[in-house]
Write a structure and sequence with these properties.
The complex is a heterodimer.
Chain A: E1 2-5, E2 10-13, H1 15-31, H2 36-45, H3 50-74, H4 80-107, H5 110-142, H6 152-159, E3 163-166, E4 171-174, H7 176-192, H8 197-207, H9 212-238, H10 243-266, H11 269-292, E5 299-301
Helix pairs in contact in A: 1-2, 1-3, 1-9, 1-10, 2-3, 3-9, 3-10, 4-7, 4-9, 5-11, 7-8, 8-9
Chain B: H1 2-33, E1 42-44, E2 47-50, E3 57-66, E4 70-76, E5 79-90, E6 94-107, E7 110-114, H2 118-121, H3 124-130, H4 134-140, E8 142-144, H5 149-165, E9 169-173, E10 177-181, E11 184-193, E12 200-210, E13 213-226, H6 228-239, H7 241-266
Parallel strand pairs in B: 2-13, 7-9
Antiparallel strand pairs in B: 1-3, 3-11, 4-7, 4-12, 5-6, 6-8, 10-11, 12-13
Classes of the chains: A mainly alpha, B alpha+beta.
Chain lengths: 305, 270
């Protein structure tokens, strides 16, 4: 059965968006990512204009992350305090990132910088997470966990003012830490035109030292607010949100997020990390192929980032 | 009153007879020198309504033509311009968007159906005059920025490839079915109307071709329009972005919470 999408001006078999929503929603519930890095290219592949794909995906993520945050909140896995600080940083970073894009566009090599940042970030984050979770899984098998060595980074973070305790996560940090790192992710996310969940999750795991299950819930919470803002701005200024497409996607993704949450509780933190790392690496490989293989079409719709 | 009217109508009918005779005479002279008589066209399903379940349509084009002529049917939207992103190799290795390229005088939709290959039945000059076929389209199009003729033809070909990939450009020959009747030929073709074609007015033209020249043409229209909820949503997205954005967000939040509640009741979670 086909549905016509009034803003994308194209027609789509409803099983495609519902199926995609289900799969990407599952990832949201499991790993606390919005999944834009998967969803947007897939929608473009099915004939949705790139600008509409990105804007509509953010609308859909509002639903999936609401569903996911709700499910994680019920089992006590959302650190609202941490989420709020990250949001403050992320919001400021996003504003700065948008200005940065303007500067890059003026210099004329925006696309190169953006693509390279994207591939490098995905590659570095994926590789680091993969190796780290693999080695910690091995360690657990052979010996009991040694007390964490205090790295230089950790010492520096401890020395910052405004230290405060985050109960849900069981960690103590300066309020500046989530704000600064949230801002950093916000800049990169704006630059790459993605939600940045795949960057925020590692920041929370490795820098903020939060337990993986709380990371997932808290990440979904802050993604929800980011996407609320993006959806509104996209609808208001760019008129790129396709309501019908968003509804079809969220039919799948809200359910997927619930299923993901249930599955996630059955997996260990290390297992979650290594699967997410594998997905991020797979996307990196796909992007490298896209960059090096001759494309079928050399022209595409203008607009978007 | 009656009288006046009937007198008037008498005058009118006399005038009609007179002009009919003139036309007939003119027609006789014309047929003496030229095979042309009457070319007709009718596009069936000429008002396409885009509703919720729209997935493209079909449009049949039919009519009568003189026997001994070849036919070319062109379906096109009005000429406009398109700005597209172009990909190129950066540093000799990586494929990236390298800039934008501007195509002027391009129809968004362009379909050519002919009884035989266009280049076999029509001279280059005539093809250019009526913009029939890709080579003619290429000659009338302006592409910028391109520096050489080679580059120009490369990007024209890429443009056609891009359009064909979304079914907006097609050319084919031999698909028009012809049946002859009383010294004339009736033609008919059923074309697939792509769902990618946006709302608007489209012109359907049939050209009767003889001795490499267009001897007659006839036109019809296809109108594509959004209706009902599709029209309402598209209009709201464009004209009332704030309300549209608000509704989109509210619907997403409600769906997220709704599904969360259902799952709790379903007993999946604690």
């Amino acid at each position: 059965m086909y549905f016509y999408l009034p803003v994308a001006l194209t027609s789509i078999n409803i099983f495609i968006p519902v199926g995609l929503g289900l799969a990407v929603g599952l990832l949201s519930g499991l790993f606390g990512v919005g999944g834009g890095f998967l969803m947007t290219p897939l929608l473009i592949m099915f004939g949705i204009p790139s600008t509409v794909a990105a804007a509509t995906d953010s609308n859909q993520i509002v639903a999936a992350s609401t569903s996911g945050t709700y499910a994680h909140w019920k089992v006590g896995n959302v650190d609202f305090k941490m989420g709020l600080y990250l949001l403050v940083g992320g919001f400021a970073g996003g504003l700065f990132g948008v200005q940065l894009i303007k500067v890059l566009k003026a210099t004329g090599n925006a696309d190169f910088v953006i693509k390279m940042t994207y591939v490098l970030m995905l590659g570095i984050v994926g590789t680091y997470m993969f190796i780290e979770s693999l080695s910690s899984m091995r360690k657990k098998k052979t010996e009991e966990i040694k007390p964490e060595k205090e790295s230089g980074m950790a010492k520096f973070l401890k020395s910052l003012p405004l230290q405060t305790h985050f109960e849900k996560s069981g960690v103590t940090h300066s309020t500046l830490v989530p704000i600064i790192f949230g801002g950093f992710v916000g800049i990169l996310a704006a630059l790459m035109g993605v939600g940045g969940g795949f960057l925020m999750v590692p920041v929370m795991v490795y820098i903020l030292r939060m337990p993986m299950h709380v990371v997932v819930g808290t990440s979904l919470f802050q993604i929800l607010f980011n996407c609320l803002e993006v959806t509104f701005l996209q609808a208001y200024t760019n008129h790129n949100v396709d309501f019908i497409l968003a509804v079809l996607l969220l039919l799948g993704s809200t359910v997927g997020a619930q299923i993901g949450t249930v599955f996630g509780r059955k997996l260990k933190g290390e297992q979650l990390k290594i699967i997410l790392a594998a997905i991020v690496l797979a996307v990196t490989v796909k992007m490298v192929f896209e960059l090096t293989l001759s494309p079928a079409l050399l022209l595409s719709q203008a607009g978007g980032h | 009153m009656r009288k006046i009217r009937s007198q008037k109508s008498k005058v009118r009918s006399l005038r009609n007879i007179f002009s009919a005779v003139l036309i007939a005479l003119f027609g006789l002279i014309m047929t003496g020198t030229n095979a042309s008589a009457e070319l007709t066209i009718k596009a069936n399903h000429d008002h396409i309504k885009i509703d919720f379940f729209y997935n493209g349509s079909t449009v049949s084009v039919a009519g009568d033509a003189d026997s001994g002529t070849d036919l070319i049917i062109k379906i096109a939207s009005p000429e406009s311009h398109e700005i597209l992103k172009q990909k190129g190799k950066v540093a000799g290795l990586l494929w990236m968007n390298t800039g934008t390229i501007n195509f002027e005088h391009t129809p968004n939709l362009y379909s050519i159906y002919s009884t035989k290959k266009v280049e076999e039945i029509l001279s280059t000059e005539e093809a250019d005059k009526y913009v029939i076929g890709y080579p003619a389209l290429s000659r009338q199009m302006e592409i910028a920025p391109v520096s050489t003729e080679d580059e120009r033809s490369k990007w024209f070909n890429e443009f056609v490839k891009y359009k064909e990939s979304s079914n907006l450009y097609t050319t084919s020959s031999g698909k028009i079915s012809i049946t002859s009747k009383d010294g004339k030929q009736a033609y008919y073709i059923l074309t697939a109307w792509p769902y990618q074609a946006p709302p608007g007015d489209y012109l359907v033209t049939v050209y009767a071709v003889k001795d490499k020249k267009v001897i007659e043409k006839a036109e019809s229209k296809v109108m594509v329009e959004q209706v009902g909820a599709v029209k309402m949503l598209a209009g709201m997205a464009k004209n009332n972005g704030a309300l549209y954005g608000g509704i989109s967000i509210m619907a997403a939040l409600a769906a997220g919470f709704g599904v969360g509640m259902i799952f709790r009741k379903g007993g999946g979670a604690h």
